[in-house]
Write a structure and sequence with these properties.
This protein has 18 helices and 13 strands. With 503 residues, it is α+β, with helices and mostly antiparallel strands. The two termini are 46 Å apart.
């Protein structure tokens, strides 16, 4: 495998923090193109074994990110071979990613685009077509390469979910917080409750997005459990066929979940659709498709980050104590750092681009160690924010979770921090996502101490979103119970933390 990585990654690829990255359309003669095809054919004895190895590894691991970390630290452009004549390249350099995303545009000079072959289109379009019983095209949606159409969608989302309406959204988020705390209180036994992080965070995200897009005022926090599980099943089962064939039982579960989602959207009345009813730029079908897209995408992405953050907090009790003290004083600097660090190391999605023309990339380092790479028209680039975050030179020990780290370069200005993407397709719901994550963590930490069932490292697994390989159980201990333990222990008894560890 090391040989394959080296062979397909052009050997070592140094990219200094201030390197200049240039992309230029490569106009090749017919002779050059024929030479390129002959080279491709000559490489088949190496390409085919690599392809077989890659496919077997993906199927064994059931993870789109399987083997990605082997690319670090010297290789920043790596060819993933899934077909002898189809190239998909992973990008793990912040400098190259910044150039790709800033270069994106849809005019004749643009080198990159998003097409129906991109992963998000392949995953979401069939689902939306099924739910609406229509045939949507890529250019009908937010991930279109048409800048004007994309801007129309973004303007609607920005108006409804952007900073101007954030105070209104916070009120709806607080309602979900109260229902969550009531739900946990009902499940307590002796001041403790055990929950699965994935289920808790999924219910929370679904409740928030339902409140905002539908106006769904549920009585109980777990009333949305059915639609939450259906969305998770559908999105992840849409990815699995890229890795292996669905079993008969999985196919039945997939179809059943699709029908649950379809029935859900048909029976609820959307406040979002009412809000944009007067919009003349999108037709009714585009509006309905946008509504479904926001709902589906808004559930799994945010819950994925919350799950990771709670797992990390459960492994760091001292950090929790500092957070509680700071939050009690009305401050949130440390919590902001925890959220930023969680997003840096656990960005939920990847970012895909496709080359519209034969292109040559040149990296010019200050010390003169220049190198270049050639991409063919139709080749795909996949930017992996989580791997970029672990391959940056702007941070010390970038692969470790450390919210207190001293950042030499602001992570918010560096492309080593890409959880919401960048450029024309930067996530328009980022303000809502950040408000949701911050509010949930604040309320949970102020009322409960979080203890993770797994203190050791857990492997990240990429399906529709980046998740944790196995379900993480959280032991939530009511802080009122902790206070009473401390008072009861007195001078000679066990300290609350020691007593909990003893249990």
């Amino acid at each position: 495998m090391a040989f394959f990585n080296y062979f397909y990654s052009c050997g070592k690829q140094p990219v200094e923090p201030h390197a200049k990255v240039e992309f230029q359309e490569l106009r090749q003669s017919r002779c050059s193109k024929v030479t390129g095809w002959l080279k491709t054919i000559a490489q088949l004895p190496i390409t085919i074994p690599h392809m077989i190895y890659t496919i077997c590894m993906l199927r064994r691991e059931q993870d789109l990110q399987a083997g990605d970390k082997s690319l670090l630290p010297n290789r920043v452009i790596h060819r993933v071979v899934l077909s002898p004549f189809r190239s998909n390249y992973l990008v793990t350099s912040d400098r190259i990613a910044s150039r790709v995303l800033s270069n994106y545009r849809s005019d004749q000079e643009g080198l990159f685009t998003i097409t129906k072959k991109s992963s998000i289109s392949q995953l979401l379009l069939p689902i939306i077509n099924y739910l609406t019983n229509k045939r949507f095209k890529v250019d009908d949606f937010l991930f279109t390469s048409d800048g004007a159409v994309a801007q129309q969608h973004r303007a609607i989302i920005h108006d409804y979910l952007g900073p101007k309406r954030l105070d209104q959204r916070r009120v709806q988020i607080e309602m979900t917080n109260r229902k969550m705390l009531s739900y946990l209180l009902r499940r307590e036994t002796n001041g403790e409750v055990i929950v699965t992080a994935k289920d808790l965070c999924g219910l929370y995200s679904t409740s928030v997005i339902s409140s905002i897009l539908i106006g769904n005022k549920i009585e109980n926090f777990d009333d949305n459990a059915k639609i939450t599980n259906a969305i998770r099943t559908v999105l992840n089962y849409r990815v699995i066929p890229f890795l292996r064939k669905l079993s008969e039982q999985e196919q039945k579960s997939f179809t059943s979940s699709l029908n649950i989602i379809c029935a859900f959207f048909k029976t609820v009345k959307s406040e979002f659709l009412g809000h944009i009813a007067e919009n003349k730029e999108l037709d009714p079908l585009q509006k309905y498709g946008l509504y479904i897209l926001l709902y589906l995408a808004g559930v799994e992405t945010t819950s994925s980050v919350l799950e990771y953050a709670l797992w990390q907090l459960g492994r760091h009790p001292d950090l929790q104590n500092e957070l509680v003290k700071e939050l009690g004083l009305g401050k949130s600097d440390l919590l902001d750092r925890v959220i930023s660090e969680s997003l840096r190391l656990h960005a939920p999605v990847r970012i895909g681009r496709e080359f519209r023309a034969d292109t040559k990339m040149t990296v010019r380092n200050k010390e003169g160690r220049n190198w270049s790479y050639t991409f063919n028209k139709g080749d795909e680039l996949t930017i992996v924010p989580t791997l970029i975050a672990q391959n940056t030179e702007s941070l010390e020990n970038p692969d470790q979770f450390n919210p207190k780290r001293k950042v030499r370069v602001s992570s918010f200005r560096s492309f080593s921090w890409l959880p919401f993407g960048s450029g024309a397709h930067r996530c328009p719901g980022q303000w809502l996502a950040l408000a949701e994550i911050k509010s949930m963590l604040t309320q949970l930490l102020m009322h409960y101490e979080v203890v993770s069932s797994s203190r050791s490292e857990v492997r990240q697994r990429q399906l529709f979103t980046l998740g944790l390989d196995r379900g993480i159980e959280l032991n939530l201990i009511n802080r009122r119970t902790i206070s009473s333990e401390g008072e009861g222990a007195g001078g000679g008894g066990q300290k609350p933390q020691a007593a909990r560890m003893a249990r």
